Amino acid sequence: MANPSKKRVLSGMRSTGKLHLGNYVGALENWVRMQDEYDCFFFIADWHALTTDYAETSRLKENSVEVLLDWLAAGLDPAKCVMFLQSHVPAHAELHLLLSMITPLGWLERVPTYKEQRENIKEKDLGTYGFLGYPVLQAADILIYKADFVPVGEDQVAHVELTREIARRFNGFYAGEREYIFREPQALLTPAPRLPGTDGRKMSKSYGNALLLTDPEPVVRQKLKTMVTDPARVRRTDRGNPDVCPVGDLHKIFSGQETIAKVNEGCRSAGIGCIECKSWVADALVKILNPMQERRKKYEDNPRLAWDILEAGSARARDVAGATMDEVRKAMGLGCSPNDSSKDEPAKDSTK
Predict the structure, then answer these.
(1) How far is CA 286 from the centre of its chain?
(2) What is the rounded distance in angstroms from the CA atom of residue 186 to the CA atom of residue 167?
(3) Rounded CA gap, 212 and 19, in Å?
(4) Is it the case that residue 349 has pLDDT exceeding 90?
(5) Burial class (CB in 10 A: 0-12, 13-18, 19+), 350
(6) Phi, psi (degrees; rounded to nearest 5) at 4
(7) Using one digit for the tens of pLDDT, what is the confidence trace for 77-103?
(8) What is the domain partition of the chain in residue ranges?
(9) Homologous superfamily of the 8-195+302-332 domain (CATH)
(10) Among 300, 319, 329, 254, which Cα is nearest to 1's?
(11) 106 Cβ partners below 8 Å, 6+ apart?
(12) Which pLDDT score is estimated for 191?
């Protein structure tokens, strides 16, 4: 599966259940394109889900399967990329432990999303070791596959930079005569337009404003009927501005140029009403979602097939992660006999 001639990409999504359109345009759509260009490893981050949802785990496996089904529906291909479950590769936890030994506390406390999420998620106790340390687990996720690139939006660049700092510190302590043990990954900035939900805020299931990839056409149309529009358009005869309208934002992402031109002219002149405008964006979304839902149904009808894909990917990931951990243990002198002269020698690369 691994292709040493290609640069490696690593990314993941938390196991939060069915995905929405924001997940698609923010990451998944880019992943589908990347699998033809890069050696891609994509994982379902069920351990990361525990950092905020540790008190309720009954749906964790079900949510992981739902994420996988949406990946397959969107076009991720097990013949082109490795899809796996984080908790099925225990080496992530071992590397997380070892990296946590060398990561200064101040590095974690300055991560922008740490304070931001603690302030915004008041209903949960996030004053835990696991939540503070999740960027170290994230670094282990990336470094254990020796990823060249991590596709992120601008708000996640700080996490990749922290991973680079941890890799640099590890190499400084343990690389010995070698140039490095871990290569420093690069952030691969990917286009991720801000997708508004039905209430105008950023689309999120926690806000109850999301359009799911699994929503059937009647549900999509009904949700869009309730979507907020340009507040200046109170009456049908009022002129609007699609540049300040959440529905206009959806058109810019999903509609063709001809439809966008009609929206611009019709909205600004009050030649069309908001109901008609919403129906046009619904038409565009249904064209995208229907093929996904057809692909998804194949796996819904045969869930064992989807789980087998995840198990095969996890086995492949364990091979690659295991080879890295052999190097790490030798570099740190863990599990070596006193006369082991291979301490500074790289382990055999199972990716070639």
Answers:
(1) 23
(2) 12
(3) 6
(4) no
(5) middle
(6) -65, -15
(7) 999 999 999 999 999 999 999 999 999
(8) 8-195+302-332, 215-299
(9) HUPs (3.40.50.620)
(10) 319
(11) none
(12) 74
Question: How many C-alpha atoms does 277 have within 13 Å on its Cβ side?
Answer: 32
Report the SS3 class of residue 123: coil
pLDDT tens per residue, range 27-79 = 999 999 999 999 999 999 999 999 888 999 999 999 999 999 999 999 999 99
pLDDT (average), residues 243-269:
96
CATH fold of 215-299 reads: Tyrosyl-Transfer RNA Synthetase (1.10.240)
How far apart are the C-alpha atoms of 283 and 278, rounded to whole Å?
Answer: 9
- Alpha carbon distance 141, 317 (integer Å): 11
Q: Which DSSP string do the residues of 107-164 spell out, in sequence order? A: HHHT-HHHHHHHHH-TTS---SHHHHTHHHHHHHHHHTTT-SEEEE-GGGHHHHHHHH
Share of the chain above pLDDT 90, in %: 80
Query: What are the helix (H) ranges across 8-59?
Result: 21-23, 29-34, 46-53
**Cβ 71 vs Cβ 28: under 8 Å:** yes
In the chain, the amino acid numbered 21 is L
